[in-house]
Design goal:
Elements (H helix, E strand, L loop, with lengths): L1 H5 L23 H19 L5 H8 L9 H30 L1 H20 L4 H14 L3 H11 L5 H6 L1 H16 L4 H4 L1 H4 L3 H5 L3 H21 L5 H4 L32 H6 L1 H29 L11 H60 L4 H30 L7 H33 L6 H20 L8
Length: 482
């Protein structure tokens, strides 16, 4: 049975041709990649803009009945709605893109995100927040299609560079989102400028949502006029016009004389039974879990008082800290990430980035302990926070490499959308629960002082160590396209 699972799904992938000479690196189609990157940028921008003010917003809805210790539970629910709806829709988006093309499916994303962000900013109740957060995730469910487009725009000689740039979009969003989020409650924070605007007085969180939504709308307009179709069946080719090297589930085969002769996409059951796909999905599940667990936990930790186990930052403080880190992260991903992947390869890079996760869960209680000893956030705490955020930047590099493994596991070009859709479905299912798990564990640990309020870090740190061990055993040491 194991042998059967290892076999390619399509006959065209059975024979693997090894390159006999070193291939010249193909030039990247920067214009089309830039559009895809901008569409990817819309996801973290609209997703993370709420983090600086979500704790205060949840408190003001009244759902916590004035108890600040329960904020983590309800904030986690709001954050999880995004990924729950993405889980319900991303496989359908990916499958639709295999049949009807990448372009029409991708265009739905930024437009829907823009409209749902406007509505989120006008929400007053907890359940309205959940509803419009749910819609944001639904329209973002097509983000997996963007990885298919990137694979179809590149080949084995330049794909690593293209995917290494993916975390840069998250880095830019990490810079802008907290800055935008820090504009919440502008009528109170900046009364001379915004105090006379009735809309912003009545809806104090509308401004950051409107700014991020408008940026997503601009991305939609740009893509509407300039994004080209890449699905081979729609462009008259089976593979990209650039040369490809076949490999670990890689896209291969010659284009048929008649594009209509292209075989239908393989069934989802065959893809799910594929051993390479399953192994990569397990590792991607770990990456997805800790990605959102850390993103949700950090602002709640920072907002919580020092006495209760946090750092006692205000919403503005959180926005500033995250924005400063975002600036650093942009340069790190732009200049360091591609060189790290080129130098060490996808496997070593992936494992190294996973090793940074348990270290972060060691730093959380250390930061609070130092702050308690000093009575405030002093220089020593600031140094620990700097190390914490530097490790987060290193982890971001792994976001690009794990998607290289996912693309490399696809058995054929017309299965890319489905493979990325399956991965996105699995990832978003995990992301649905990971923010709630992380923030709820934090609230539970702090409220009941379990292991001195540190149980959350012990559990998540041990889980991260298991993720490293599992990834070492499951991932191939080399991509076959390397």
């Amino acid at each position: 049975m194991a042998v059967a699972e290892e076999q390619p799904l399509l006959h065209q992938d059975i024979e693997r041709v090894e390159p006999t000479v070193e291939q010249k690196r193909s030039p990247l189609p920067y214009r089309q990649l830039a559009i895809v990157y901008l569409i990817q940028f819309s996801e973290p921008l609209t997703g993370m803009v709420i983090y600086p003010f979500i704790a205060q917003l949840v408190l003001e809805t009244g759902v916590t009945h004035g108890d600040p210790k329960t904020i983590g539970y309800y904030a986690g629910i709001v954050e999880s709605m995004f990924f729950f709806s993405e889980f319900l829709t991303c496989l359908q988006w990916g499958r639709l893109s295999d049949y009807y093309g990448r372009r029409p499916v991708l265009l739905f994303g930024p437009l829907g995100l823009a409209l749902s962000m406007y509505a989120f900013g006008l929400s007053k109740s907890f359940w309205q927040l959940c509803l419009f957060r749910f819609l944001q995730g639904m329209f973002n469910g097509n983000i997996g299609v963007s990885k298919s487009v990137m694979a179809e725009l590149t080949d084995s000689t330049n794909r690593a560079k293209a995917f290494a740039m993916m975390p840069l979009m998250w880095s830019v969003a990490d810079t802008l989102a907290p800055l935008i989020g820090a504009t919440a409650n502008p009528a109170t924070e900046f009364p001379d400028v915004f105090g006379g605007i009735t809309l912003l007085v009545k809806y104090p969180y509308f401004l950051p949502c409107a700014i991020s939504g408008s940026l997503a709308l601009l991305v939609f307009i740009f893509a509407l006029f300039d994004l080209k179709e890449t699905l081979p069946a729609k462009t008259g080719q089976l593979v990209s016009s650039q040369p490809r090297t076949e490999g670990y589930g890689a896209i291969g085969g010659e284009a048929p004389a008649n594009p209509r002769d292209e075989p239908a996409p393989p069934p989802l059951t065959a893809l799910v039974r594929s051993a390479p796909v399953r192994r990569v999905l397990v590792v991607y599940g770990f990456v997805a879990f800790f990605d959102m667990a850390m993103a949700a936990l950090l602002p709640i930790f920072c907002y919580t008082s020092i006495a209760d186990g946090g750092l006692g930052f205000s919403s503005r403080d959180i926005g500033v800290v995250l924005a400063v880190w975002g600036v650093y992260n942009v340069f790190f991903q732009l200049y360091a990430a591609p060189r790290i992947i080129d130098r060490f390869g996808a496997f070593k890079t992936q494992i190294t980035t996973l090793l940074a996760i348990p270290l972060i869960f060691v730093l959380y209680p250390m930061e609070n302990a130092f702050a308690k000893a000093a009575g405030s956030v002093n220089g020593a705490v600031g140094a620990l926070i700097a190390v914490h955020l530097a490790l987060l930047s290193l982890i971001y590099v792994g976001y690009g490499t794990i998607h290289m493994f996912i693309v490399d596991s696809s058995p054929s070009s017309n299965a890319l959308g489905a493979v990325n859709g399956i991965a996105q479905t699995a990832g978003t299912l995990i992301r649905t629960f990971s923010p709630w798990v992380a923030t709820s564990l934090f609230s539970l640990s702090v409220d009941r002082q379990l292991v001195g309020g540190k149980l959350v870090y012990i559990l998540l740190g041990c889980a991260a160590a298991c993720a490293v061990y599992t990834s070492v055993t499951l991932l191939p040491r080399r991509l076959r396209s390397e």
